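Methods: example folding runs. The two proteins below were folded one after another, and each record is reproduced exactly as written to the output file, sequence line first and structure-token line second.
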Amino acid sequence: MQKKNDANGPARRRDILLRRQGSHPLSTGNRPQNSETAPLTRWVTDGVAVKPPLGATVADGMAFADGASNRMIMSLYPAPTRGTIQELAEAWDLHPMIVEDMIVAQQRPKLDRYGDVVFMAVRSARYIDETEEVEFAEFHIVMKDNAVVILCQDHQWIDGTEASQFEDTDDRKFDRRVKALLADEGLLKLGPRAVAYRMIDMIVDGYSPVLRGISIDQEQIERQVFSGDVAVAQRIYRLSQEIIDMQHTTTSVSEVVARLQKDFIRNGMPDELRAYLEDVADHLTRDNARISESRESLSQILSVNATLVAERQNEDMKKISGWAAILFAPTLIGSIYGMNFDHMPELHWAWGYPVALIAMVALAGFLYWVFKRSKWM
């Protein structure tokens, strides 16, 4: 959905929105706050990235980017705060809806265009083998023709690295995350769209290890099911939830990539970048297919497990019923002779007691033989 600023002053609406969000219960949320982690910014000229001068502001960076057509700025916010977002909003003259999304966060993957600004929300995934869980992290990408900003909304990188571990202290030493985004100078000459592509490409590449981890868990679950482990059902349900969450994420990111392709084509996209985006879209298509197969396979495993549990319960019921019948036979004989009627010939018979015991044992043995032959025991 394309959204545009009206002509009545987006800056005024942004100020009103920011004042209103000062008391918004979700404006800080439960996300960790880390005001000490400064943005990692690079000024780029003809694909060559350099660290900006000491003390340079966001506005200074925009002035640099506006100075020539072969320039752009790239900023990575490891731990965005309300203050840094407000500074960015003022320097970029952002639409208030973008500011709201960046402050509140918790956005599903999406792409919106507001005038000359493209806003994207995407989610990375990381498999944690110890707990057999998939951890998701939210990233926002805000892009103009000569500037791009990436915000780590969960204060961590794609691989789970915490914001406090980002390094940007040496002019000659770039943080490895910045290097990953700016490694290809030839691609970087294509501008902010190339940075956005690199970010999405790294996120999508991170889905494959997650799917491998899920596949391994699924194989282990299959062995558990046929080994008769009674605790496997809970593991199946837990893995099913992880697969559903992954499916929601990859499907939404696929929609974002498709809309990004259309937006880039509409605004002129080099063939090289188009080929890269098509490759990302192909990876997402394969990931979605693998997830669908895993979900269907897990559903079949759950059905098989339910069938096996029912069979085991049926076998247990057969054994219980058989032993109940065996114990009922002597009980029946004992209860008849325990009525103590006066006119019962066997009561005064000398062999009555031994015969009753022999009858009990014989009947119980006969029933045991019948049930054993019928494989109930």
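Second run, written to the same file directly after the first:
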Amino acid sequence: MDKTRPIIIVKKKGGHGGHHGGAWKVAYADFVTAMMALFIVLWLLNASKQVQEAVGGYFRDPAGTAKKVGSNMMGSGENFTLTTDNMPKLKDELQIAIKQMADFEKLKSHIEMTVTAEGLRIELSESSSGIFFDNGSARLNADGSRMLITLAQELGKLPNKVSIEGHTDSKPYAPSATYSNWELSSDRANSARRIMQANGIRPDQVTQVRGFADQHLRKPQDPLDPSNRRISLIVQYIIKNEDDEGAKPVAGNEPKTESHNSPTPHEQSPSKK
């Protein structure tokens, strides 16, 4: 007897044919990257030439060890040489660096930067209690050391020469003293040179170390004013000759060192009157 086979009905569900995986994520990431690149290009087209050179210098030299240029003086392109045209830019860069110091609010009224015929003059003036140096001494205090280290790290990036001057007020030492304002001004200038050369300034970058005592007062009408006691750093201009690839300091700043041979104040420094 024939047996009737069971009828088998196969039902197929409609819908998608399976899981698509993560391919869409890759496509979306490529789209976002392309949009970011577009925005960067549009931003660079509207940026200054200096910013464009700095960004281009980074991609050519990410470590920043090539020639110096750009807002942070590192990157690629032409050597960053400070002349009469761009010396004000250095002033702005130094002011930005100094403002990052912890005690800037306390020190700001004792820091003055002026673009002069010699170059950029940076003056660190004292108060009656002593801002950068101990009173009557060439020993730098903590604020003075931090300030000069900050300046040295910035100025050491430049090819420009630097001269350092020491100045005092007109308050004399005791008549019997063997130490005077001449020694104090010279010793303070040398103290500044030593700490700066140990923290960024090249050995051949300092051309002059001079002590003027009270012969160039900041306030001649008040010779005893504590602001007459100061250290002056002069970043000298560099003038490029058209017939010469090199550069030389502005005339009148030939390398020279002037300093008194005297004991350091913490070894022998009689108090002033």
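Comment on the second run: Strands lie at 111-115, 119-125, 162-167, 206-211, 230-236, 238-240, 247-249.
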